């Protein structure tokens, strides 16, 4: 089990649209100097009692409260987050200022060297707390504390997005691209199998061969089961025992039989439609290929 040991990479993005028809954001931008972030996910619970005992319970999710401690924040950026008018080099707050809704993202580092990544979707900042003190014999560095309250989207009530590098489905490219956009890229395209070895109708295949399927995109490793990737002996329909493995990019699956195949026997390599990509899109149709040893 790993523990959090650091935090970095603070970003924000303006929420440009949140209606019943959809959600959109502006381009994410970095906020430098993140020192600490406190996130409180609030909820309420109500218990109902009957017949002298607990009968039912209900939980309702509420707002998120966030406290950010940063080394400093440029005045122009501060004014943007707080909805304050800037005139030249000056910020001019008024009682009528309304902070815009924004998303914030950040990266928590863990003791094993991996990270957990966050986007909180819809929040408004409150004016910062500041403390300024006369310089004495010892210098005292004063950070800036800003607070925000986060809601759920009007569109679908979603509140946040979290990626963990320790998840079996994690790919390095996911972490690299995480802060380039608030929302994940929409994907409704089913994966396809682009190459199979041995090839369909191949003959004279070595009895010690491994079956290999190459996919058009990364697949979800939860589908890497003996029920979804099968090698069947054609003469009697019996399953060949073996082990499954997937490569680092989650695009190539190998099946290695536990023992050599039978010479001159016909085999069928099968992949079912329960195999999905990272977005949950299923293989459009089963894949069946035949080869002879």
Overview of the structural elements:
With 293 residues, the chain is mostly beta strands. It contains two helices and 18 strands. It has helices spanning 75-82, 172-177; strands at residues 4-19, 22-25, 29-30, 34-50, 53-70, 85-87, 90-92, 102-110, 115-129, 144-151, 160-164, 193-197, 211-215, 229-233, 242-246, 252-257, 266-271, 287-292. Strands 1, 2, 3, 4, 5, 8, 9, 10 and 11 form a nine-stranded antiparallel beta sheet that branches. A four-stranded antiparallel beta sheet has the order 12-13-16-15, with no helix packed on it. A three-stranded antiparallel beta sheet has the order 14-17-18, with no helix packed on it.
On the 0-100 scale, what is the average pLDDT? 93
**Judging from the principal axes of the Cα atoms, what is the shape?**
elongated
Name the quaternary structure: single chain
Low-confidence stretches: none
**Which strand-content bin applies to the residues?**
over 45%
Helix content: under 10%
Cα radius of gyration in angstroms: 27 Å
DSSP strand tally = 18
Offer a quick outline of the entry.
The protein is mainly β. About 5% of the residues lie in helices and about 45% in strands. The chain has helices spanning about 75-80, 170-175; strands spanning about 5-20, 20-25, 30, 35-50, 55-70, 85, 90, 100-110, 115-130, 145-150, 160-165, 195, 210-215, 230-235, 240-245, 250-255, 265-270, 285-290.
Labels describing this entry:
single chain, 293 residues, mainly beta, Immunoglobulin-like, 2 domains, nine-stranded antiparallel sheet, four-stranded antiparallel sheet, 5% helix, 47% strand, elongated
């Amino acid at each position: 089990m790993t523990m959090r040991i650091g935090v970095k990479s603070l970003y924000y993005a303006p929420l440009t649209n949140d209606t019943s028809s959809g959600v959109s954001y502006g381009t994410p931008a970095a906020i430098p100097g993140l020192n600490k972030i406190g996130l409180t996910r609030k909820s309420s619970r109500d218990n109902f009692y009957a017949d002298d005992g607990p009968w039912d319970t209900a939980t309702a999710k509420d707002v998120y409260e966030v406290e950010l401690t940063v080394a400093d924040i440029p005045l122009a950026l501060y004014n943007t987050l707080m909805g304050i008018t800037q005139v030249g080099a000056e910020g001019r707050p008024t009682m009528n200022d309304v902070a815009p809704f924004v998303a914030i993202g950040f990266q928590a580092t863990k003791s094993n060297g991996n990270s957990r990544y966050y986007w909180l979707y819809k929040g408004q900042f409150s004016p910062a707390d500041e403390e300024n003190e006369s310089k004495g014999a010892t210098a005292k560095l004063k950070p800036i504390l800003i607070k925000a309250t986060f809601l759920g989207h009007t569109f679908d009530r979603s509140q946040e997005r979290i990626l963990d590098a320790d998840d079996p489905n994690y790919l390095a490219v996911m972490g690299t691209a995480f802060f380039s956009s608030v929302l994940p890229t929409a994907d409704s395209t089913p994966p396809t199998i682009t190459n199979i070895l041995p090839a369909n109708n191949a003959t004279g295949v070595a009895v010690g061969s491994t079956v290999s399927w190459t996919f058009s995109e990364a697949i979800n490793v939860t589908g890497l089961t003996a029920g979804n990737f099968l090698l069947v002996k054609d003469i009697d329909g019996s399953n060949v025992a073996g082990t499954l493995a997937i490569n680092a990019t989650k695009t190539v699956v190998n099946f290695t039989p536990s023992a050599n195949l039978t010479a001159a026997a016909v085999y069928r390599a099968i992949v079912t439609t329960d195999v999905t990509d990272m977005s949950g899109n299923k293989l459009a149709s089963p894949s069946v290929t035949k080869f002879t040893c």
